[in-house]
Amino acid sequence: MLTKVYSRLGSEPGQPSSLDEAALIAPGFFRLNDGGWIPRAGMMLGFDALATVAGLTLATLFRFEGLISGPQLEAFQRTGLLLVVLRLASNAAFGLHRWSFRLSGLTEAVRIVLASLAATCTLCCVLFFISGAGVSRLIIALEFFTTTGLMAAYRYLPRVATLWYRDLARSRDETADRTLIVGAGHCGDLLIRDLLTASNHHYRVLGFLDDDRKKLGSSVGGRPVLGRLTDLSELIQKHRIAKVLIAIPRLESVRIRELLRMCSHLGVSFKIIPSAFSAMDKRITAAMLHDLSPEDLLPRDQIRFDPAEFRDLIRGRRILVTGAAGSIGSEIARQVASHGPSELVLVDINENELYFLNRRLEEQYPSIKLHTLIADIRDQARVDRIGRKYRPQYVFHAAAHKHVPLMETAPDEAVKNNVFGTLNVAQMADRCGAERFVLISTDKAVRPSSVMGATKRIAELIVRGIARDSQTRFSAVRFGNVLGSAGSVVPLFKEQIQRGGPVTVTHPECTRYFMTIPEAVGLVILAGLKAYGELCILDMGEPIRIAELASNMITMAGLVPGKDIPIAFTGLRPGEKLFEELLTEEEEQTEQVRDRIKTAIAAAPPTNLTHMLEQLRSAADTGDHTAVRAVIQTIVPTYSEPGAPARSGAIASAA
User: Tens digit of pLDDT for each residue in 53-80?
Assistant: First the structure.
């Protein structure tokens, strides 16, 4: 006796819950009550033989209205034996004895029909062209349909019963999340199939939404298409929806933001199929769903890079990264390491994060010669020793103090690190004969209203000044806020949401440009190593309103902005502007050198820059904040001290 032939609705501890799970224990076998095993193929073919006999019997009884005479019985026996042999041979040829009760689908159903049709056609040839025996054509036709139906039934009924039971259990489960799927296309179809067959989730899918009018009122995976995307808010309230799954490949961010605005008062949470998975043709699973993230809200397509281009630039080169423990520096190190440099030198004063970065890179790229150095870029002698010892060909300078409010209270420290630290590293690159030097700059260097922005502006001037008399190609790459980086509003908002709010925003109209860390770093590497120009601007699309970002992040967490999580406006901090810019008036003439990278005509540094830097160093060394700000104002005339009207306004050509 078989313990359970078909897929069980419940399982005993330690035993498989379906025929397929039994096959995993002993592939190709079924388990018996006494602990023995029976070949899987033999069992399947045995059931096929029974189905054939039953099909022929039912067809014969139907043809003769339940009354079978002696000659008819003799023909039945002779035909039945031949038919069983033919069907078993055909089923084996089509591989029906190797059946998956859990994964069978339309393709397998077609195989059943073809195998059955092949056996029936062969039977006709034998009976009518070889033996000449007379068998009613109606019996042959009825037997084909009856036997095919029986063979399909016992193969598919276990799966149908399991799915029905799971669906019933989920519908009765009060903890299951009532769910809508946005997108009734290919990805939506694959997703609902997985959700119906898998048991390790809590989604109870009630239907779909899709903007294709032809799909309205139709059914996908047994679930109706209830309406269009604009109906989402109404359907959520009508069906008491808790989860919304977005299964539209590369849904535009403007549509995602529109969906979030419609649902901001409803307290539903969202998940999405990442675009990286949407290209998969055969397999979309619930495990691929991830929470909506700020990256999904960027008002543009995310940038894709050609790995071969990076390899050509980096392979076999000696590369040094300052600020390697920071968000940008560590991503530069990771991307560079993945393309085969001969040596990678990581420099930072943050020993803890540098240690962990070193561990990760050693594990992932054991073939690279990795040098991890604790050093302060303000120590000129130490920086020069590093340059002489390792002779880097490329230098990425990412080390900087970047927190605007902190630098307003310590302008002397901002000057020592951002200005003279840059001077030390740039001079080292020049002295050791580096081929490329790339300064990571910021949009806050444009008409700066903060000490941090002003010091980065001076760093750009320093780089341009050294470039005039150097064999090294110097570049400054300017971009805006980086999603997920240390100091970004995104991790701050997440932390505030997790602890129940409030989410703090400086001003309702404050906007910022955003990029992801991989995007920013990839463009920095290309812009710097391709030597497009002294000043490169990364095109980040349209700026995002920070208040809208905060509201969307609260909505994405399944909460209601202003109700579950309040939004508090704290006012602009010292040095902050409502709108960031990417170019000054002198730099407005730009040239698009490639997708998302522009070069600008860089303003020449002052002729007496060296003298002014000495004044700035003296003021910083004495800790005289007033003097520091005064010298900064002399070097950067567009710098507006705190309390002065901050200039703002974005230049359209830079967006």
Answer: 888 888 888 877 766 656 666 666 777 7
